[in-house]
Structures are given as structure tokens and as C-alpha cells.
């Protein structure tokens, strides 16, 4: 969670969970720093970003873009994306709640991990923070040793063990990417109009957080199709995520459904 936000501006907060460190770091900048901690996870996880303030005069408006409960893929990271708008100047807490969901003795049980961060809301951030694009301002949490190239402060909470279907304990990375505004997001539509994905992209409203997330997933799927050999599993995984977000947010999905069907029926 960033320690500072600008009044009236949106901050994009992303939580990643993965079983593999390399999957966790996909698309992250090399210069981004993180603090590493141990944490237990399961195959099914829930993530919430909460304003604990009570009453109508809350300092934050939090919008969840992705589903609260998601399963973990053994090969890819799973992400939760939130947009937080600061509504009042001052210093206020934000809570990141990560829930482990397991079946014990025939019943679904949950174990919650709550991380509290203090955020200062000011009228305007410094000029160097007001440039377009992303800036890492949060904390990463993973299981085990520090990630290569990232200085870490490791806090061991319990020995590693295997859970679920013989899958190892995984990694959780929570990071906040600061934006000056929604319109300052990096342009994901830098491809020529004759690109194979142009028709899909024209049907997605990139001015919305959900639209940008769909395009991000689609870009990752297309990158998997461009690999040598083609990574059909990864492409199918990201097209499924794009379709899920599109359906949840009322976007036209026919073209995405066709692409997913084509990838699923791989030659």
C-alpha cells in the first residue's frame, strides 16, 4: 500500500499470489524494490482491500476490479486489482486482508491475515511523482528466500510444508502502483490497427479500469501465442481471465469467446 496518495486521484493497487517466484515477477520492473515475508497460502484465496473507517465521511473509496475469491494456478500468478480514490486530506489506515480457504474435517475453514498500512493524503504530490505511468510504492510478501535482485527483509513465520494437492506453499506479493489519474495510465493500445487483436481492442473501453485489465490479459495471451514453441496453456489461461472480467463488467465478449475457443482447440 502506498504511504502517500493524492486527493481525488485514483491509485492502482495490485496483489499477486503465485506458487513460483518467477511467475510472481512477470511484468515487474527490475528496479522495483520489495520487502519479503513468509505467509501461508492455499489453492483457494480471498483478498480484500478495506477502509476500516466507520460512518459516511470515509477517507477512501475502494473499487475491486477482480473477483474477491480466486483459485491459484500452479504455473501462473493470480492477481487482485483495486482502485483507491482518496476523498479527504489527512492520515488514515487501509487494511489488506488475505484469506486462506481450506477444507478441514469436511467443512470449509478460513484463516485471515490482516496487514494495516497508514496512508497520508495530500492535495498534490511532488512533481517527480506526478509523471504518467506506474511507480512501485508498496510491499511484496512471499514465502521463503528473497527474490533474486531484490533486497529483502525476511520474517520466518512457520516452516514450509505442502498443502492441497501436493502443491508447495506459495508466494504472495502485494504492490501498489501510483497513478496521477486514471487517464495517466500507460497506453496499452500501441499496436497498429491491423494487428490481429485490433477488432477485440476496439470493442473494449480502455478508459475504464476493467477495460484496461482485459487488454492487459489479452496482451499476455498474445505474447504466449508468439512464443516458440507456442505456449497454449498460458494463452488459454489469460484469455479465460480476460473473458471473465469482460463478462463481469458487461463488455462485448463474442470475439474473446472465439479466441478462447480457438486456443482451447489447439492444433
How would you briefly describe this protein structure?
By secondary structure, this protein is of the alpha+beta class. The protein has helices spanning 21-24, 198-202, 209-225, 232-248, 254-264, and strands at 4-6, 10-18, 44-50, 60-64, 69-71, 78-86, 90-104, 107-122, 162-163, 167-168, 171-178.
Describe the protein's topology:
Layout: E1 4-6, E2 10-18, H1 21-24, E3 44-50, E4 60-64, E5 69-71, E6 78-86, E7 90-104, E8 107-122, E9 162-163, E10 167-168, E11 171-178, H2 198-202, H3 209-225, H4 232-248, H5 254-264
Parallel strand pairs: 1-8
Antiparallel strand pairs: 2-6, 2-11, 3-5, 3-7, 4-6, 7-8, 9-10
Give a verbal description of the structure.
The chain is an alpha+beta fold and 267 residues long. The chain folds into two domains: 4-182, no CATH class; 187-264. The protein is 20% helix and 30% strand. The protein is built from five helices and eleven strands; from the N terminus they run ββαβββββββββαααα. The protein has a five-stranded mixed β-sheet with strand order 1-8-7-3-5, with no helix packed on it. The chain has a four-stranded antiparallel β-sheet with strand order 4-6-2-11. A two-stranded antiparallel ribbon has the order 9-10. α3 runs antiparallel to α4 and α4 runs antiparallel to α5. The longest helix has 17 residues, at 209-225. It is globular. It starts with a strand and ends with a helix. Mean pLDDT is 70; it is low at 128-172 and 174-203.
Amino acid at each position: 500500500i502506498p504511504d502517500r496518495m493524492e486527493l481525488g486521484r485514483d491509485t492502482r493497487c495490485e496483489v499477486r499470489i503465485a506458487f513460483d517466484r518467477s511467475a510472481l515477477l512477470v511484468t515487474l520492473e527490475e528496479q522495483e524494490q520489495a520487502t519479503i515475508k513468509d505467509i501461508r497460502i492455499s489453492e483457494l484465496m480471498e483478498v480484500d482491500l478495506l477502509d476500516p473507517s466507520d460512518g459516511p465521511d470515509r477517507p477512501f473509496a475502494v473499487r475491486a476490479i477482480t473477483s474477491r475469491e480466486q483459485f491459484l494456478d500452479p504455473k501462473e500468478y493470480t492477481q487482485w486489482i483495486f482502485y483507491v480514490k482518496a476523498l479527504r486530506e489527512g492520515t488514515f489506515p487501509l487494511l489488506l486482508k488475505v484469506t486462506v480457504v481450506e477444507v478441514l474435517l469436511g467443512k470449509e475453514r478460513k484463516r485471515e491475515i490482516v496487514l494495516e498500512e497508514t496512508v497520508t493524503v495530500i492535495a498534490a504530490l511532488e512533481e517527480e511523482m506526478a509523471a504518467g505511468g506506474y511507480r512501485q510504492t508498496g510491499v511484496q510478501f512471499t514465502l521463503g528466500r528473497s527474490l533474486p535482485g531484490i533486497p529483502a527483509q525476511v520474517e520466518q513465520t512457520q516452516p514450509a510444508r505442502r498443502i492441497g494437492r501436493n502443491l508447495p506453499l506459495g508466494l504472495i506479493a502485494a504492490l501498489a502502483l501510483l497513478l496521477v489519474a486514471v487517464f495517466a495510465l500507460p497506453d496499452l493500445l500501441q499496436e497498429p490497427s491491423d494487428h490481429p487483436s485490433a477488432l477485440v481492442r476496439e470493442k473494449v473501453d480502455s478508459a475504464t479500469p476493467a477495460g484496461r485489465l482485459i487488454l492487459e490479459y489479452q496482451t499476455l495471451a498474445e505474447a504466449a501465442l508468439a512464443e516458440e514453441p507456442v505456449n497454449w496453456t498460458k494463452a488459454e489461461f489469460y484469455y479465460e481471465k480476460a473473458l471473465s472480467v469482460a463478462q463481469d463488467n458487461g463488455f462485448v465478449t463474442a470475439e474473446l469467446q472465439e479466441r478462447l475457443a480457438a486456443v482451447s482447440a489447439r492444433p
